[in-house]
Amino acid sequence: MTLINKLSAAPAKWNRRSREERLLLLEAFALLGMARLMVLLTPFRFLARTLGKHMAETPAAVDSASSRSANLVGQAVRSAAGNTPWQSVCLPQAVTGQWMLKRRNIPATLYLGVKKSPESPDKLAAHAWLRCGGKILTGAEGHRQFTVVSTFATNKRGIAPSPR
């Protein structure tokens, strides 16, 4: 799809969305910008403080209302990420989703993983993804290829120690 076609389709897509979806998209867009700035300009330890309990995981099941809300948040983050004028890769997406779910008191776990880079075996590739219940909300593509090196879990109720 060309840029002109994409831009001309945007108003129609926006009008088809519910009020809730529109608000989530706007929130995701703003938070993606904040997450990107924090990733670029601050030491990771400051960002990590906003992500939840380090080296903990949330349960693999959530109630249906939380699951529905989490799915909407994930969709909003992925959709907004595809429309930012800056790069919104896996880490800003996972951070944004984590912040949005934390605000809604929905338990989620942010994962950071590494693997050997396919382009250069002496270097590492990194990836971040976000899980709520049994569903990967952001960064799902290829996440199984990465070895988890760190986790951050939100919502103090129900946090289980990481099995690592």
Briefly note the structural class of the backbone: alpha+beta
- Let me know the number of strands: 7
Q: Which regions contain 5 or more consecutive residues with pLDDT less than 50?
A: none
- Roughly how much helix do the residues carry, as a percent range? 40-55%
- The rounded distance between the terminal residues' Cα atoms is 43 Å
Q: Globular, elongated, flat, extended or rod-shaped: what is the shape?
A: globular
Q: Main sheet: which strands, in order across?
A: 1-6-3-4-5
Strand content: 15-25%
Largest sheet: 5 strands, antiparallel
Q: What's the helix count? A: 5
- The topology string of helices and strands comes to HHHEEHHEEEEE
The total tally of domains equals: 1
If you average the pLDDT, what whole number results? 90
Gyration radius from CA atoms, angstroms = 16 Å
